[in-house]
Amino acid sequence: MSRLTIENLTIRFGDNAPPVVDGVSLSLQAGRMLALVGESGSGKSVTALSILGLLPPQAQVRADSLRLDQQNILALSDSGLRGLRGGRIGMVFQEPLSALNPLHKVETQIGESLAVHQGLSRAQARARTLELLHQVHLPEPETMLARFPHQLSGGQRQRVMIAMALANNPSVLIADEPTTALDVTVQAGILGLLKQLQAELGLSVLLITHDLGVVARYAEDIAVMHQGRIVEAGTAAQVLAAPAAPYTRHLLAAEPGGTPPTPDPSRPVQLQTTDLRVHFGQSSGLFQRRREPFRAVDGISLQLRRGETLGVVGESGSGKSTLALAILRLIESRGGIRFHDESLDQLRGNRQLQPWRARMQVVFQDPWSSLNPRMTVGQIIAEGLKVHQRDMSASEREHEVTAMLAEVGLPDDTQHRYPHEFSGGQRQRIAIARALILRPELLVLDEPTSALDRSVQHQVLELLRDLQNRYALSYLFISHDLKVVRAISHELIVMRNGKALEAGPTEEIFRNPRHEYTQALITAAFAGEQKYQVAF
Amino acid sequence: MRFRNPVYQRQWQAFRANRRGYWSLWIFLTLFVLCMGAELIANDKPLLLSYQDELYFPVLKTYPETTFGGMFETEANYRDPFVAGLIEENGWMIWPPIRFSHGTINYDLMVPSPAPPSAENWLGTDDQGRDVLARIIYGFRLSILFGLILTLASSMIGIAVGAVQGYYGGWTDLAGQRFIEVWSSMPILYLIIILSSFVVPSFWWLLLIMLLFSWMTLVDLVRAEFLRCRNLDYVRAARALGVPTPIIMWRHILPNAMVATLTFMPFILNGSIVTLTTLDFIGFGLPPGSPSLGELLGQGKANLHAPWLGISGFVSLAFLLSLLIFIGEAVRDAFDPRKYLQ
């Protein structure tokens, strides 16, 4: 039986604007989970918001039919829609920190909708809230009631969001990228919870996601969305095992795959750290209390050969980005850093470090914040040349920039344009060009693909592999995404709380993870593949 | 190249969208340019005169009276009917629209000064028989120049101090902040009053004393912006490239800090002008005889029976300050990310 039916839904912003959602038809069956899959900008979130009438007023929504259990949603008044929202349809948003009111305790957050929809008294609401917190498996629900959102972890916040969505016994739950902001292992917990609630309460779940791995593991049905249209729909097993639409095949092919060429132990060691430590908040002042320092990086020893990739895996807060900054000597650290045969850890100040800067470069995670919006792409890329090769003339510099742009696969007219004119993937290419123009030997890649869609990610990874082959570059590749790391790294370090839990050749760790945390990470990342036996 | 930059273009569009501020800017610029040429608008010398078929430029050059057949070796007084008569006989004179400079005393008044507005003195004269309109024009120029120099100088110091504090942080920042707290608790007005008892406060003296205390306005803003921006990814990337610190501060961080700074500037300018006017009003400002709006207001207060003094002073000051406020509002709109990032 179909719970929620959408027929021929078209949404546009403004009269002459092209439609953002173009003739979408969906059917959410009772007691099943439907995954709406698509890359950013495909219109999947807009579709979900339109069901609840949550789009801004300038949005023009047209549909042949939009029904919840035979009730026409389009014909509802504002007050009718309010009864629907949080009543019969629950919604879970992507970013739990901004979706929760920071000034209200958990009890008030959940109690509010109970009071509005069911008119419960304080005591009744409290009892129901406790029950809900049990249901979403939050530890010690009684103490949770008095907590504020900032006192909860990301996963706990998302559980509170789910409890809020479930408060009024909805029949449909819409989850808009519920785990994108969370770590892999926490992700698995939240999705498992959704799946369990679906079974227990007979919910229909509309799960919006960009991650096919998630879909494979949890959803029964799939609809693939591309540029505002549904390109393919069906059961998960059917769509994943035998994708009919070219775009679905493209998405599946874009899942990171392949392995790096086998390591060659005869190559010289490019980078070596011994017992590297970065501690924050160490007070040494005369009048300050002695506090326990925060150990962001706590005794990491690693070794990276020329032309190879060392993957650093860990969840947020594990210290992997701090490790990168320490190796680049952008923050103070203790312990040894050797680059080739020279020790870097004794060098102080810009002047001593200057010659080394050209030999190790960095690419950051967020392509939107890593390029200065006030400079042209040409100026951004040429900046390093201006510093390190001062005798170079302007025309030589421009020549170099042109060559570099070609190398990272961007057209030449790029250099006179500004960063905001480019997509995330192109911007990441610009960042790579800026790093490579000095011909470094070591490239530190701090989550270079995390902010990108899968298919763009795939292209950037290809580019990185290609550049490594050509110039025998060494990569320190930091990521939380095990699939990406597996596709590019020769060696692997698993980090948690600043310490290395496990280190060794990548394939060996994946085949035979010794630490249970590593095992949990791998299970969470590859569960989907194992379930359907499809090669992503 | 620089103005093709989309960020600046969007900001300029947002500035223009505020019509009131946009027009205020043009009116202000026009007045500013006109005031810069105050000598050509209000002067007690002709702009150009012809005497015995030769051209003379009295505004630019000083000619003794003997040049025109007079008796004295001193500079010719063209307002003297005798001298004027000598010149008119052998040529002609072109006068500026207002035939008074800021210090010219009109000895031909038919009534005791302050004289009410007349065809000769459009806004009347003050209690020493000087033309009010001429004094407003020169006073306007003095106020704006004083304000601009003070604003620019204090902004430059403020930005430099804020940048260093914010970028380096730690002890540098701590020491700077404490010093500013102590320094800003000094009563500026009293200091100036005390100082003016042993130096005669000239234009530059006043500027220097005010500068000592006015540079702190921007420090906090710039410091906060530098604290935020030093950890931006593109700043980190520049550090990893080995770009020298001063260049990082100048090229990558300062443009961000300039947003807050430029938004504040019209208001700082306003504040500077008001402070100068206040000092002139209570008599501790510029040396006696200088044309100033504050002194005019003071005269208005002392001569309530001559309302044209107070009204002219008030209207011109209020007009100038309103213009600057409107411009400031438009600048604020221009830099408001909620407006231009939509």
Automatic annotation (TrEMBL), chain A:
EC number(s) stated in the UniProt entry for this protein: 7.4.2.9
Membrane in keyword set: yes
Pfam families, per the entry: ABC_tran, oligo_HPY
Compartments where located: Cell inner membrane
Record field: catalytic activity: a dipeptide(out) + ATP + H2O = a dipeptide(in) + ADP + phosphate + H(+)
Annotated GO MF terms: ATP binding
Domain ABC transporter positions: 4-252, 271-522
Matching InterPro entries: AAA+_ATPase, ABC_Ni/Peptide_Import, ABC_transporter-like_ATP-bd, ABC_transporter-like_CS, Oligopep_ABC_C, P-loop_NTPase
Any coiled-coil regions, as ranges: none
Keyword vocabulary terms for this entry: ATP-binding, Cell membrane, Membrane, Nucleotide-binding, Transport
Membrane topology: Peripheral membrane protein
Gene3D superfamilies reported in the protein's UniProt record: P-loop containing nucleotide triphosphate hydrolases (3.40.50.300)
Membrane-spanning parts: none
Family: Belongs to the ABC transporter superfamily.
Name the record gives this protein: ABC-type dipeptide transporter
Originating species: Alcanivorax quisquiliarum
TrEMBL record, chain B:
Pfam families according to UniProt: BPD_transp_1 (PF00528)
Gene3D superfamilies found in the cross-reference section: MetI-like
InterPro entries from the UniProt entry: MetI-like (IPR000515), MetI-like_sf (IPR035906)
Keyword presence, Plastid: no
Top-level taxon in the UniProt lineage: Bacteria
Chain ranges passing through the membrane: 20-42, 144-168, 188-213, 259-286, 306-328
Keywords: Membrane, Transmembrane, Transmembrane helix, Transport
Topological category with respect to the lipid bilayer: Multi-pass membrane protein
Domain ABC transmembrane type-1: residue ranges: 140-332
Localization per Swiss-Prot or TrEMBL: Cell membrane
Record family assignment: Belongs to the binding-protein-dependent transport system permease family.
Protein name: ABC transporter permease
